[in-house]
Task: inverse folding
């Protein structure tokens, strides 16, 4: 229990954030280790997205500190990218050029090879030269996740990344994402209001209150690994879902 | 303009996630040839009405010369006589195209180029920097309300009766649309694109070139088009006085001898050249804005 892998990839301690008189985050602490997926579940409008923006370094907290791999977080970084619901690919660039952006910006030796690998991993090899608007919503979302993974970040922040998709597409995307992560040591923080998504994807769960968001509960998600659509019918999953849903409705 | 460019290699083994923007056959509308033909109907009808009104005497040639007369004068302007043997102080019409068109075009393009070179960076700066906007925007907004014609007297004092005054007025005409459109377009670049670029490791200093300019390009091109045409229409103000070359000089010389047909030839030249300029600019800028087409 003392390997590098067990050192938290990202630690946040006592985060607080207000906009004027509106308190959004109240003393939030959490951490995530490599290969772990922390699902942050909370009611709509509770400040989940603000929490993620603060963790991403896009907005400074009023109070508290954030460290990634032992270094304080002071701004956005390719080591800690965020993907949001409305995927942000660069609309004037082909899919391939979008995937190459990160490695190029950081002066990595072989952006083309990175893009090739990600085109395979996303199943979008046939769309390398397509513009983002020529892709479906699900494709764009996969591409946006692949785009930030091109830099092999130790930490990945996801803000309802599959929230805008229809139910079937969402499930396919979730399975694709589980498969993608299984081969990577990335620490993931996933923000969602969807209990099912949190339990299907997460190893651990943080439950947030209504605004101002504070941590109501942190717990492990005691479901076996290698999850997929069949997991949704697992009695352990079903009863856990009912239990967490009850908690969410009470908070 | 922008249909017909979709990904060739769609489909193929990919679950059911189909491309959102599959070929837009249904929304393509009439073909290019049909649209050109439709676009020619109204002008052609107007010419026929003009011809009929002149022919029947409803329209006096003192108010508007006949289409035939204007056509003859156009031919004269383009191909008639010798532009070479010029009498000093006389503004020729016959064969004048060889003199007036290059004069007007060079004033236009030189001054427009200058307006682009100055206006684009200024507009970008105003769009990207709150400080630059706070310092300069009120001035820009106030000065752009000064009409082109109001600049003429002071332009003559500053630049004298030479190329300078005409170029300066074209510059003023082209400058403001370029600045305003560029400022606005840069200001409206979605912040998420900038966030994403930064989270991909793009350094701050590279954001203007790599994110703001390409993302703002459709708006910038609109400003470039407006500026090109407004610069062209401002040119005539600079050619009213103190010039013995240029389309404007020719038209005002014709007015003094009441040659309405020659004035109309000048108007047609303005219209045709302005249209061609816009078409050329659109063709040049097309590759950098095609991504934003419907």
Result:
């Amino acid at each position: 229990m003392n390997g590098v892998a067990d050192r938290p990839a990202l630690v946040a301690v006592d985060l607080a954030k207000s906009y004027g008189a509106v308190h959004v985050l109240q003393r939030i602490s959490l951490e995530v280790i490599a290969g772990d997926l922390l699902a942050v579940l909370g009611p709509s409008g509770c400040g989940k997205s603000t929490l993620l923006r603060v963790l991403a370094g896009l907005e400074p907290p009023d109070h508290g500190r954030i460290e990634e791999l032992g270094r304080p977080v002071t701004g956005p970084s390719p080591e800690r990218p965020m993907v949001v619901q409305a995927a942000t690919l660069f609309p004037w660039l082909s899919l391939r050029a979008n995937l190459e952006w990160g490695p190029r910006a950081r002066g990595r030796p072989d952006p083309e090879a990175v893009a090739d690998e990600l085109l395979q991993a996303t199943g979008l090899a046939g769309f390398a030269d397509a513009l983002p608007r020529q892709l479906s919503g699900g494709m764009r979302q996969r591409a946006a996740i692949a785009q930030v993974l091109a830099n092999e970040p130790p930490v990945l922040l996801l803000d309802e990344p599959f929230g805008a998709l229809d139910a079937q597409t969402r499930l396919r995307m979730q399975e694709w994402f589980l498969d993608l992560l299984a081969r990577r040591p990335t620490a993931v923080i996933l923000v969602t209001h969807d209990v099912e998504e949190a339990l299907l994807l997460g190893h651990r769960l943080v439950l947030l209150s209504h605004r101002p968001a504070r941590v109501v509960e942190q717990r492990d998600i005691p479901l076996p690994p290698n999850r997929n659509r069949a997991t949704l019918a697992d009695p352990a999953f079903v009863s856990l879902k009912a239990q967490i849903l009850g908690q969410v409705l009470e908070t | 303009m922008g249909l017909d460019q979709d990904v060739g290699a769609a489909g193929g083994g990919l679950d059911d996630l189909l491309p959102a923007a599959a070929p837009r056959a249904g929304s393509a509308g009439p073909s290019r040839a049909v649209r050109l033909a439709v676009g020619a109907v109204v002008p052609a009808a107007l010419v026929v009405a003009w011809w009929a009104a002149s022919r029947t005497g409803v329209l006096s040639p003192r108010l508007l010369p006949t289409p035939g007369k204007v056509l003859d004068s156009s031919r004269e302007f383009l191909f008639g006589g010798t532009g070479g043997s010029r009498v000093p102080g006389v503004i020729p019409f016959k064969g004048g195209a060889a003199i007036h068109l290059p004069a007007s075009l060079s004033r236009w393009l030189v001054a427009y180029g200058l307006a682009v070179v100055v206006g684009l960076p200024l507009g970008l700066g105003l769009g990207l920097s709150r400080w630059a906007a706070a310092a300069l925007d009120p001035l820009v907004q106030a000065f752009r309300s000064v009409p082109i014609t109001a600049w003429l007297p002071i332009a003559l004092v500053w630049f004298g009766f030479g190329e300078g005054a005409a170029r300066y007025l074209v510059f003023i005409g082209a400058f403001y649309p370029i600045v305003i459109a560029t400022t606005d377009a840069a200001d409206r670049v979605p912040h998420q694109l900038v966030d994403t670029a930064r989270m991909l490791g793009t350094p701050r200093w590279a954001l203007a070139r790599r994110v703001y300019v390409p993302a703002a390009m459709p708006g910038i091109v609109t400003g470039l088009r407006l500026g090109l045409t407004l610069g062209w229409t401002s040119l005539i103000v600079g050619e009213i006085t103190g010039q013995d070359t240029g389309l404007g000089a020719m038209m005002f010389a014709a007015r003094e001898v009441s040659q309405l047909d020659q004035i109309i030839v000048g108007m047609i030249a303005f219209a045709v050249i302005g249209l061609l300029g816009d078409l050329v600019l659109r063709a040049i800028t097309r590759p950098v804005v095609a991504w934003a087409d419907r």
Notes: The interface with chain B takes residues 56, 58, 75-78, 80-82, 84, 86, 88, 90-93, 101-102, 105-106, 123-124, 126-127, 129-131, 133-139, 147-148, 150-151, 168-169, 172 of chain A (CB under 8 Å). The first helix of chain A runs from residue 48 to 56. The mean pLDDT of chain A is 91.
